[in-house]
Design a protein that fits this description.
Elements (H helix, E strand, L loop, with lengths): L42 H8 L4 E7 L6 E5 L12 H12 L6 E7 L7 E2 L2 E2 L2 E5 L8 H13 L4 E2 L3 E4 L32 E9 L2 E11 L2 E4 L4 E4 L7 E3 L4 E4 L9 E5 L3 H15 L8 E2 L7 E7 L3 H11 L2 H18 L12 H12 L31 H16 L15 E8 L2 E9 L5 E9 L1 H9 L10 H24 L1
Parallel strand pairs: 5-7, 6-8, 8-16, 12-14
Antiparallel strand pairs: 1-2, 1-20, 3-6, 3-17, 4-5, 9-10, 9-15, 10-11, 13-14, 18-19, 19-20
């Protein structure tokens, strides 16, 4: 699950997809006709050979009518991994709208003029307010800073605050991941460079110096003052946490790179600290940032809009960035709460599990048609990204959610032309964890027929054993799990190629 870079904000021309008519969102759920079809019985044995101990479940269906063409273990619950990003994107597009933008604001408070800015001095507080932009990068902060400089600000007499109140700020997405996993970042309304930091040993003419912390974007590599790293003796784990955004790092062995990506647990502070550094470089002195809230009536000094949601969502499905999925999902559930008048005005900010449950309830508010196996029973979306093993979905349920998303979702699915290892004509979202592999999307068969599919391959026993033996210090995937993944990938390709050639 790799983080996308700021350059991924470039608009992407979507390949042509089957156009199936834009019906009202969720209207397709009740019409999803998925009878249990017992074809492909030999695939269980094939899975055992290609991926020892694998179980296989899938649904192949007509995306326009919902009629099933093939199905196996369609009502068996699987861990969906990042395939769970599909319902997140579908709900966000419907609730927020494809043109929705997340706005980062710089506000001024205090003084008789609202912002209190006069003669280059702000006689009040300066507030950097997060709007939930998951792709905010150094370049964006520089643009906001440019607006501040254009307003003539040179000094702040009050405080420098960072406001993350729009969304809950969490130190990590899933507690069942390694501490140093760079895909298990902090989440909040004010993010920066996908909430990752690069720990790197400095190299010079005198040899290797101490490790440093950098935030990386197209604008370059800059020190990140909110994260600290200290050297430790070699011989044990190469990287260990020493508190929130504090790390111990062993020197690299001969021939090794001596660098590692780590998650940022306090994204709001990280963004504020980098903004302060950039401001100092521009000749604007700011106090050390503090957490706070923008008061009513604070004056807008500068603002930056994110790309439209459609573009952000395309990046989520292509690069599977967990932070982006979580922030977009949180914003969608916040909109849902507001529309239902159950917003956070009278309750604490919801954690990811509660937020995901709200969207799940909305997505599944219509029952499946009669004869739909277990219906929605057992479906559980534990978060918005699919990171971890808490989520469960059957192939039948995920097919219904995929179909409900309609062309607004389907048009964003990545394919071979986006660098994905997929057969020509297949556009899908993948999901991968150790002993878990999933894929869901659309394909165009050799005869030109458009078809929808959901395919899960898993080894539940091995995955459960791995979770039971979790050591959060260990970041490497076991060799046995990598070998299993290779076999599962081969089986996945065989099934896809058979579908494409058969129909």
């Amino acid at each position: 699950m790799t983080a996308s870079s700021p350059s991924d904000r470039t608009p992407h021309q979507a390949p042509r997809r089957p156009v199936l008519g834009r019906r009202p969102f969720l209207g397709l759920l009740g019409a999803m006709v998925l009878p249990a079809v017992g074809t492909g019985a030999g695939l269980a044995a094939s899975a055992a050979g290609a991926s020892d101990g694998a179980s296989v479940g899938y649904v192949l269906f007509d995306p326009d009518t919902g009629r099933v063409v093939e199905a196996q273990a369609a009502d068996t619950a699987f861990i969906p991994a990042s395939v769970a990003k599909l319902p997140t994107v579908a709900a966000a597009l419907a609730l927020l709208g494809p043109d929705h933008r997340f706005t980062t604001r710089l506000l001024g408070s205090g003084g008789p003029m609202g912002g209190g800015l006069a003669g280059g001095v702000l006689r009040g507080d300066l507030i950097l307010q997060g709007g939930g932009d998951p792709a905010l990068a150094t370049e964006g902060l520089l643009q906001v800073l440019g607006g501040l400089a254009a307003a003539g600000l040179r000094r702040v007499e009050g405080r420098f605050l960072y406001d993350t109140a729009l969304l809950p700020e969490l130190a990590e997405i899933d507690s069942g991941q390694p501490w140093a996993a760079p895909y298990n970042t902090g989440v909040g309304a004010l993010s920066l460079n996908y909430n990752r930091a690069l720990l790197s040993w400095r190299r010079g003419s005198g040899g290797i110096g101490g490790p440093e912390v950098l935030t990386v974007a197209d604008a370059g590599r800059l020190p990140l003052d909110s994260v600290a790293v200290k050297p430790m003796a070699a011989g044990g784990f190469p990287l260990l946490p020493d508190g929130a955004d504090r790390w111990l790092m062993a020197p690299p062995a001969a021939g090794e790179a001596g660098a590692a990506w780590v998650p940022v647990a306090r994204p709001g502070l990280a963004a504020a600290m980098l903004f302060r550094r950039l401001a100092a470089d521009a000749g604007i002195a700011l106090p050390v940032p503090e957490a706070g809230h923008a008061p009513a009536g604070a004056a807008l000094l500068a603002a930056l809009d994110s790309p439209p949601l459609t573009e952000l969502a395309r990046g989520v499905l292509r690069h599977s960035n967990n932070l982006s999925a979580e922030v977009i999902g949180l914003a969608a559930s916040d909109r849902l709460e507001t529309s239902l008048e159950i917003g956070r005005r009278n309750m604490p900010a919801p954690p990811l599990e509660r937020s995901a449950a709200l969207l799940q309830g909305w997505l599944t508010r219509q029952p499946m048609a009669a004869g739909q196996g277990k219906g929605w029973s057992g479906l559980r979306l534990a978060n918005h990204s699919g990171l971890g093993t808490g989520s469960r979905a059957t192939p039948r349920q995920m097919a219904a959610l995929l179909r409900a998303g309609g062309p607004a979702l389907w048009d964003l699915l990545p394919g071979e032309e986006d660098g994905k290892a997929l057969p020509p004509g297949v556009h899908a979202k993948s999901g991968t964890l150790a002993y878990v592999k999933g894929l869901a999307g659309l394909l165009t068969a050799a005869g030109g027929r458009p078809m929808g599919f959901v395919l899960f391959i898993a080894d539940p026993a091995r995955r459960a054993a791995m979770d039971a033996a979790l050591d959060r210090r260990v970041t490497a995937t076991p060799a046995e799990a990598r070998a299993w993944a290779a076999g599962a990938g081969k089986l996945q390709s065989e099934i896809l190629e058979r579908w494409v050639s058969t129909y």
